[in-house]
Amino acid sequence: MMSSADKILLDGVREASLVFFEKSEAKSHNWEHTVRVRENAMRIGKKLKADLLVLELAVYLHDIARSEEMTSKGKIDHAKRGAELAREILKKLGASREIAEEVCYCIENHRAKGMNRGKTLEADILFDADKLDALGAVGILRLDRFALEVGAGLHNGTADLKNTETYTSEDTSFREFYMTTRFFRDKMRTSPGKKIAAKRHRFMVLFFRRFFEEINADEAFCRMLKECE
Fold it and tell me: What is the pTM of this model?
C-alpha cells in the first residue's frame, strides 16, 4: 500500500506537471495523452509487479518538455530536457535521490529514437505505455492532430517520403506512420505491450488501406503500406 508521503509526492508532481500543459502548443502530447499513458502504464505495471510509485511519477513528468521540442521544431530533445526539469521538481518536492534518479532514467529512456531496451522494468513499461498511445484508433487521431500542428494536410502526393521533413507541412499522418510509428509494434519491450501493440498496429494498416482507396492514392503509397503489414 502506498504511504501518505508517497501520495503527497504524487499529488505534488501531478500538479507541477499540469502547469507545463496549460499553454503548450504540443496538442498531440497534451495532458489527455499523459492520462492515457498512465492507464497503459498502470495496467502493465500491475501485471509485471513494477514499482508503481516510480512508474506513475515518470508518467506524469515524461512529456513536460514537449512544448520546448515543438517550438524548437525538434532541436530540443524533450526526453533529456524533461529529465532535467523533472529532477528539479522532484528535488523541490522532497523526493529521495534514489527515486528521483529512477524516475529521470525512465524519462530519458522513453523517446522513440532510443529504442534499445532500458535498464529497469519501469523504463521499459513507460516506453511501451507511451508508444501504445501512438497506435490504434487513438494513434490515428493523434497523428492527424500532429499533422495539423505542423501545417500538413490529409495527404501529400509526394511518394518519396524519405526525402520529406518532420515538423513541416510535408509531415502528414501517413508519413509519420511510415517513417516512425510502424516500427513501434516490433520495438515494444514488455510482453503485455507487444500483445496490445500488435492489435493496434493491424487497425492502423486497415485504416490507411481504406483511406488510400477513398482518395485513389498513387500505387506507390499502397506499396509502402504493404511494407507496414
Answer: 0.89
